[in-house]
Protein: Methionine--tRNA ligase
Amino acid sequence: MKKFKRYLVTSALPYANGPVHIGHLAGVYIPSDIYVRYLRLRGADVISVCGSDEHGVPITIKARQEGVKPQDIVDKYHNIIKNAFKGLGMSFDIYSRTTSPTHHKTASDFFRALYDKGEFIEKTTMQYYDEEAGQFLADRYIVGTCPHCQNDRAYGDQCEKCGSTLSATDLIDPHSAITGSVPVMRETTHWFLPLDKHEEFLRKWILEEHKEWKVNVYGQCKSWLDLGLQPRAVSRDLDWGIPVPVKGAEGKVLYVWFDAPIGYISATKDLTPDWEKYWKDEDTKMVHFIGKDNIVFHCIVFPSMLRAHGGYILPENVPANEFLNLEGEKISTSRNWAVWLHEYLEEFPGKEDVLRYVLCANAPETKDNDFTWKDFQTRNNNELVAVLGNFVNRALVLTQKYYDGKVPACGELTDYDRDILGELPQIKKALEENIENYRFREALKEAMNIARLGNKYLADTEPWKLYKTDPQRVQTILNVSLQITASLAIAVEPFMPFTAEKILRLLDVEKFGWDQLGNTALLKPGHRIGTPALLFEKIEDSVIEAQLEKLAATKRANLAKEAGKKVEPQKESIAFDDFGKMDIRVATIIAAEKIAKTKKLLKLTIDTGIDKRTIVSGIAEHYTPESLVGRQVQVLINLEPRELKGVLSEGMILMAQDATGKLVLLSPAEPVGNGTMVG
Structure:
C-alpha cells in the first residue's frame, strides 16, 4: 500500500438554501471530521476543506419565494451553516463559499482551459421556455405530474415523492413554477462535457484499480459505466451563477454541478499559497466525503473534469454513506421533517458530543438507517453516562478520596493488571484499521471498549474494599485506572472532541499524540489531577417528549398544508330549500361494535334525542369501538334507511377526511343536548 506525504480531505459543500440537518451530519460531516482529527493526532500533514455551495436554481427559487435577492439567501444560510458547524466542533481548516472572488476566477479559468483545449461539445437543443416570464426554465422551474407515481408536484429533474430521477420532458402536464403557464420548446445552445470520452479510463481506474471502495460507491459507479456514459451539459440559461467566459454566451452560467466541486480547489487556494502540492502532487492522498446522492459527481464527473484539464490528482477514495431517516420517515427539508443542527445546539447546550456520538454509532455506512429520539436518549443514558462517564468519574473520585487528587505510584503489576493493560494496544490497532478503512461505527465501538475495560477492571479489583487492608495494591489499581483514562482521552478525541478536552482538563494535562495511546506511564506519580466532574448527564423523558411533540406539530402543519392544496372544487349550487330538506342533529354514540367479517364497518347505537337507532359506519380502520362510546357527533337522521351486511342503517354520521385519508368525526366544540339541530 502506497505511503502518502500529505492528505487533502474534502467534505461535500452544503447547499446554501437552508440549514444543515442530522442527515447531512451522519452522511458526510461527522465521518469527515473523525478522519481528519485522527490524522492530525497522528501528526499527518492534512488539510480539511469545505464551504457553501451558493449557485443553482434552488437558490433562485428560495429568493423568489421570500421576495429577496439570491445573494441575500446565500448570505443568510452561509452564516447559519458556518456557525452551526463551528458549534458542533467541525475542524475544517477553511469553510469557504462559491460566491467568493477566488472561486469565481478559479471556476471561470477552469472552464476556459477546457474550452481552449477543445474538451467541450457545443450543442443546440430544445428546452422549455416560459414566454410569460421571458426565460428558459431550468429543471427545478418545471413542475408536473410524475409518470411513475402520479405525484402532481414533481420537478423536472426529480420526483421527491417516489425518488425517481426525471427529465423535464418526462413530466405529464408540465407548467412553469414561475408563472404557472404552459412552457413551449425553444432552441438554446450549451456546452457539454463528453463523459463517454473518459469511459474507458474510468472503467480501469474505478473497476480495476479501486475495488477497495465501499460496495455502494463501487456498485453505483459500475451501474453508470455499464449503461454507457453520455455527454453532460456544463452550462445553463440562468442569471444567477458564474457567467460562461465565452463570447456569445450572454445569459448563460456554469451549471452548478460543474461549478461546485471546483469549490474545493478555490477553497484550498484561499487557505494556502502551496495549494498546488495538495492538488497536483502524486504524494497527496485526496479523499472526498459525500452522501450517496453525490457519488456520480465525485467518482465520474469531477475526475473527468480534472483529467480533461490535466495536472490534477484524482481521489484515492470516496467513502459515501447512505441516507439517515428520522423517526421512520425520509428527512425532507421542504416538509421541515428534520432535526436542524443550529436548533439542536440551542436546545441542547453542552451536548454537542451526544449528537456526534449518536450519529456515528447509528451512521448509515452500509444501508439507510433511522434516527429516533428514544434511541438518542437510550444511548446517552446507557452508554455515555453509564459506561464512559461512569468509569472516568469513578477513577477520578477514588483518586481524590484516597490520595488527595495526586496520581499514586504504580507498584508491582499482577497478571490481571498486565492482561488489562495489554488490551490497549490491541484496541489501538483495531481503531486504526477501522478508521483508515472508513468504518467509523466500528471504530467508535473500539474507543468505547476502553471505557468498558476500565469499568470491568474497577468492578473486578474493588479498590474501595481493599483500601483499609492493602492500600499499596489500591495505589496500583488507581494508577492503572488513570492511565486507562488518559488513553481514553486520546481514543475518543476524533469522535467526541469536547469530551476529550474535558477529560484532559480533569486530568490537568496537555493533549497527547495518537502514538501515546496505550502508554502506561502517561501520568506521572505525584501529578495532581483536577476536581472530578461529571462528563455527561441523564436526559429525562420530558426532554424527549418535547422533541417528539415538535415533530408531531410539524406533521400536523404538513397535513394541513397538503389538505389546503388538495381542496376539492365547489360542487354545483343548490337551492336553500334543498339544503333545508336535510335534518342534521347532534347525537351521542351510546354503543359500538364491529360487524363480523368486515374490516371497515362498525354498528353504532345512537341517541338522537328523538329516539335510539342503529347506524352502520365505515370507520373501523380509524376508530376502535371503545373510543367512540360517549362521543357527540353530527348525524344526518332523515337519510333513507339502507341495509348493510344484514344490519339496517338509519342515518349517516358526518365526517371529514384529512390529507392522509384519515376520517375525523365532526363534533360540537362544546356539549349540547342530543337532538339539537345543525344548520
Q: What stands out?
A: The radius of gyration is 32 Å. The chain has a mean pLDDT of 93. The first strand starts at residue 6 and ends at 11. The CA atoms of residues 505 and 530 lie 7 Å apart.
